Amino acid sequence: MALDRQLEILAVCGVGMGSSLMLKMTAEDALRSLGVDARVENTDVSTARGMSPDVVIGQGMHTGEIADLAPVVITISDFLDKEGLEAQLRERLTEQGWLA
Amino acid sequence: MDVIKDILTFLADNVFGQVPILIGLITLAGLLLQRKRFEDVFAGALRATIGVVILFIGIEVFTGGLTSFQTVLASAMGTTPPKADNTLADFLADQGGTIALVITVAFLAHVLVVRLFPAARYLYLTGHLMFWISTVTVASLVTIAPGADQLTLVLCGAGFVAAYWTLQPLWMRPLMRRVMPDDRFGFAHTSSLACLITGYAARPLGSRDKHDTEKLKLPRQLSFFKDVNVSTALIITVIMLVGVAFADHGVVTKAAAEMDDKLSPWVWAILVGLRFAGGIAILLFGVRMFLGEIVPAFKGFSDRVIPGTRPALDAPTVFPVAPTAVMVGFVSSTLVFLVCLGVFAGAGWFTLAPPMIMLFFVGGAAALFGNVVAGWRGAVLGGVVTGLILAVGQAVTWGLYERTAPELATLADPDWYAIGWLLKAADPVVGGNSIWLVPAVAVGAMITTLLLLGRAEKRRAEADEEAAPESAAPAEA
């Protein structure tokens, strides 16, 4: 692991209550499989603008608006697709050198 | 014996009657059951508790903005602003413990039902709606039976709510299968009635193949509206400014002076719009904070008891299927609501406040299902249906919660209105002491539905088995 701290990950949705929380749980599962030490939080797009996480995950409707928020922005279309998210995370985290 | 009575009274007043403490304890139990580390359990329970405290603060800010909004609009239209004896904050302070217990007991009952009846299929996991539906149900039950004790309210409320959580994803299933053919998850959202009406009413309007919304291109300028904080602040502020222009000068000056006596009424109008949106944002932040702890705890529990069940999830989980339809629904529901606002106010009726969150999520969901059935015309219809239900719903429901929490009518989804009026309609039949009929009928309807569905599914499986050797065609699920 090239990163010497816990990875900060943000799951976003419109109001930050229902679907982003589901996404957070999916992301936590995927990160556990990848063996990445990360803290996942969920919030709405407005609040997200004031935060500076390492990774943002959300559906395209929202990630388009906050594309500059984090070095890694991941767009999903399925909130429960753990394998798909795991593959995207593996690729993008490796790209950043955070995952060997 | 007096000691036991004292202890029970102390618990009732200080634990079961104090919603932040009760939610904190329920979360603590949930986190302990998941065998989390000490620091996670402690911090999580505390976060849930703080979340509830923030929720209360948000409601106070929001209610203050709502009152100013209604005063100005009523004055501009020459009507009397709606009065209420109680507010949501008072109601939650009074019955919050009951509501927290309804959620917990109803969830356990719901898990049990899903475990016992394969036909139930879906586990309801939309946390914030679990909270609000329980609130609406308790408010309605208190309206029917003002004298009921906490235990009666908890059991009656939980029975009714558990039946709703079980049945709602099932009545959405036929429409959901057209959106998500793989049936990996169900739809758990209190917009369901608007979606159902749209889904059936849109049939003659066209077909998805020919008129799919996703072939349309919408102007980019619309995109900032989907941030509900922005659209709430903007639309309420504009209506406030128009209201101030037409309102009685004395009323406006007096209201503005209450905030700051040097303040121009125009700037005051802008501040009220912003406060209204700010209050909702704080309220949602609080809800998010306690849900973030409770929902994973609930899910952890149900995963252990019923592994592999399909979850039923919040509306935005289907939004990626047709984002343009969602925008079409939001825009059309907002326009219809604003037209209703003008017409209703002109007629001297109740002053409405546009619930931007509901216009977005309910309008969006109804439009998405409308699009699946009939393309863009169905999507527009979804928005129209939503705008009408929300406007009429607000106008007729405010008075229903006069003695409990009238704000439950302002920021509400279609199913909330249906539940409120359903329970109100039960009033003459059920009356004070026979409140037990409410959960009995709801649970009875649920079990009958599940048995019939289960039998139909079994018969279909047998028919498929018989038909299989003769026809090589794959069996239709």
Give structural notes.
The complex is a heterodimer of chains A (100) and B (477). Chain A has 100 residues and is α/β, with parallel strands linked by helices. Chain A contains four helices and four strands; from the N terminus they run βαβαβαβα. In chain A, helix 1 crosses helix 4. Helix content of chain B is 73%, strand content 2%. Chain B has 17 helices and three strands. In chain B, strands 1-3-2 form a three-stranded parallel β-sheet. Chains A and B meet through helix 1, strand 2, helix 2 and helix 3 of A and helix 5, helix 10, helix 12 and helix 14 of B.
Mind sketching the topology for me?
The complex is a heterodimer of chains A (about 100) and B (about 475).
Chain A: E1 7-13, H1 19-34, E2 38-44, H2 45-48, E3 55-59, H3 60-63, E4 72-76, H4 82-95
Parallel strand pairs in A: 1-2, 1-3, 3-4
Chain B: H1 2-16, H2 19-33, H3 38-77, H4 88-116, E1 122-124, H5 127-144, H6 150-171, H7 173-179, E2 186-187, H8 192-201, H9 208-211, H10 228-246, H11 249-259, H12 265-305, E3 310-313, H13 323-346, H14 356-397, H15 407-410, H16 414-430, H17 437-467
Parallel strand pairs in B: 1-3, 2-3
Helix pairs in contact in B: 2-3, 2-4, 2-12, 3-10, 3-12, 4-5, 4-6, 5-6, 5-16, 6-17, 8-14, 10-12, 13-14, 14-16
Pfam family, one (chain A): PTS_IIB
InterPro entries (chain A): PTS_EIIB-like_sf, PTS_EIIB_2/3
GO molecular function (chain A): protein-N(PI)-phosphohistidine-sugar phosphotransferase activity
